[in-house]
Amino acid sequence: MANVVVVGSQWGDEGKGKIVDWLSERADVVVRYQGGHNAGHTLVIDGVSYKLSLLPSGLVRGKFSVIGNGVVVDPRHLVEEIDKLAGQGVTITPELLRIADNAPLILSVHQELDAIRENATSGLKIGTTKRGIGPAYEDKVGRRAIRVIDLAEPETLMAKIERLLTHHNALRRGMGIDEIPAQRIWDELMAVSDKVLPYVDRVWALLDERRRRGERILFEGAQGALLDNDHGTYPFVTSSNTVAGQAAPGSGLGPSAIDYVLGITKAYTTRVGEGPFPTEQDNEVGQFLGERGREFGVVTGRKRRCGWFDAVIVRQTVRTSGIHGIALTKLDVLDGLEEIRVCVGYELNGTRIDYLPASMGAQSGVKPIYESLEGWAETTAGARSWADLPAQAVKYVRRVEELIGAPVAMLSTSPEREDTILVQDPFQV
Ligand code: IMP
After folding, report:
1. What is the CATH number of domain 1-100+202-429?
2. Residue 283 has pLDDT above 90, yes or no
């Protein structure tokens, strides 16, 4: 039995929602293990579009799903997202969803702080989703977070809130903004606590038991490896580890639980928010890709920056995430282009390098070295076998595989689940 981790191999928005949906049919459990409601996963089922941010995608198909301890949980958003899905006819019950008792909470104070920092005219702008993700993780590692299980212990909750606010109110005084009374956070938590508590569980034990029973676990990564707090384009990253290894500590299973890592890879590159993007095309090519690929953020509605496929960063992700195979998505967006470029290396201060350097200055200074490939006039949208693809498209895919050092396990040719060419079933490896 294989347990599969799905990760984004670029800067997020690679089309993970559809692939996770495809794989979840073959899985017994779907687990989110990092990030929070900054993620935006779109699933299209029978023409109906479901947009999820915090909940594991498996829920839409009625799969048993878990929010692991590595996730930062905004309890108010959780309740809203459950209600929204209910409005679309998807009922979520504690039989279907479990939330780790040791997951930290995102509170209004985090969201406010995220927005204040992002809206400030001075300082470093990251272009966050303003959902409080960064400040919530800061409090987690600062050992002052309120965790899901604290909702079950109201007698000690107030003291925890007060301890947390000692830190936040000092910050707020420094910024010249109003302090927050502990009662406000208490009321905010009590308003949703009864709706959250039925889902709370000892997730590490539950997953271990299911694993021992031979159930298949699908770990659903959010964002992308280049947004990883250690391995990404720091400081223009998110505040969690987005690489595949995080599936273990973010769920409470050991690393031996991971059998296969599938990297979701878009046939070109996009990024939302600030930060280096060597192959960005701030021109008609970028505009073409953005319009064709409908590149707007699910969570914030922001226009995504677009550019050519960057084999350097994906090759790096293949190594930092231990990717066995990739799912290549949105190939059809390239249909009709006469020439397609692929970045095969960088030039930095006159020297050729084959990796993304760690320094912030060097990351923004690298110049892409391109290889040019012939495009194709035919459409690849909806193709369900290699034979349906034009020869040049197959050539493009083969070159991508060669450059990144990993095979294409799946090729997605439209948002519809059935439009998928399967080369290797990750659960059967
Ligand atoms: P945060 O995660 O809201 O703190 O945002 C940090 C960076 O990660 C920003 O550049 C965001 O645009 C980016 N980001 C966060 N979540 C996603 C996602 O799901 N897809 C793509 N980019 C994301």
Report:
1. 3.40.440.10
2. yes
Q: What's the CATH class of domain 108-196?
A: mainly alpha
Domain assignments of the chain as residue spans, ordered by start: 1-100+202-429, 108-196
Select from 10, 13, 32, 38 the residue to mutate for testing ligand 1; criterion: most ligand atoms less than 8 Å from CB: 38
Residue labelled with tokens 């050992």: 143
Distances (CA, A) of 267 to 309, 376, 397, 407: 6, 14, 9, 14
- 340-395, pLDDT tens digit by residue? 999 999 999 999 999 999 999 999 999 999 999 999 999 999 999 999 999 999 99
Pocket, ligand 1, Cβ cutoff 6 A: 11-13, 38-40, 126-129, 131, 133-134, 222-223, 227, 238-239, 272-273
Residue 177 corresponds to which tokens in the numbers above? 């903004």
Amino acid identity, position 109: V
Q: Say which of 28, 37, 41, 228 is annotated catalytic.
A: 41
Q: Known catalytic residue: 21?
A: no
Q: pLDDT by residue (tens digit) across 159-169?
A: 999 999 999 99
In angstroms, what is the span from residue 234 Cα to ligand 1's centroid?
12
Nearest atom, ligand 1, residue 274 CA: 10
Question: Count of alpha carbons within 13 Å of 74, Cβ hemisphere only?
Answer: 24
